Amino acid sequence: VGVGTGWATMACSNPSAGTVTSSSDVAIGTSRAGVRLLQISYTTGSNGDAGLFTCITNQYVNGWILYVETDPGATTPTTLYDIDLDNDNGRDVMGGALDDRSATVTEGTRPLDRGNYQVVENYGFLTIQVTAAGSSKTAEILIYYLPF
Questions:
Q1: What CA–CA distance (Å, rounded) separates 44 from 65?
Q2: Taking a C-beta distance cutoff of 8 angstroms, is the pair 61, 121 a contact?
Q3: What pLDDT digit, counting tens, does each position of 49-98 carry?
Q4: 3-state secondary structure string across the chain
Q5: Residues 6-58: pLDDT tens digits?
Q6: Does residue 1 belong to any structural domain of this protein?
Q7: CATH code (residue 93)
Q8: For the chain, what is the domain count?
Q9: Distance of alpha carbon 74 from alpha carbon 110, whole angstroms
């Protein structure tokens, strides 16, 4: 089922760059639908890792990645910052759809795969990588997925 060893309450808690403000992995909607929301609020690094945030999910995210939303925080990121959601093979499962994010507007997108916006499957952990966001900036990423 969806994650490796049971549902995680913390989606990502040990970043190698930046800090996690809050995170969760919870069911949304009716239990019959089975959709989950992996939420991570973060602050980018400020020293040698300035403008970066990198964190691996605590549990497997095995399922269909349906939609991802990004929301700039109170200390807004630099305009056109980028986010990758890399699978265990290092491939961005979003296909670049999270590049050039707005510093002021909440944005959402489906994954981009072979030139089409569509759901994609993932097996294993996701590595969330934020780049070019500016030093000590805040934002939130919401990953909607349907577990296998």
A1: 24
A2: no
A3: 899 999 999 999 999 999 999 999 999 999 999 999 999 999 999 999 99
A4: CCCCCCCCCCCCCCCCECEEEEEEEEECCCCCCCCEEEEEEEECECCCCECCEEEECCCCCCEEEEEEEEEECCCCCCCCEEEEEECCCCCECCCCCCCCECCCCCEEECCEECCEECCEEECCCCEEEEECCCCCCEEEEEEEEEEC
A5: 444 568 878 999 999 999 999 997 766 789 999 999 999 998 889 999 999 99
A6: no
A7: 2.60.120.380
A8: 1
A9: 25
87: containing domain: 19-147
Q: What token pair was written down for 19?
A: 């800090």
The answer as to whether 32 is a domain residue is: yes
Question: For residue 137, which amino acid is it?
Answer: K
Please report whether residue 57 resides in a domain.
Answer: yes
C-alpha separations of 142 from 41, 48, 113, 115, 138 in Å: 9, 27, 19, 23, 14
Kindly state whether residue 6 falls inside one of the protein's structural domains.
no
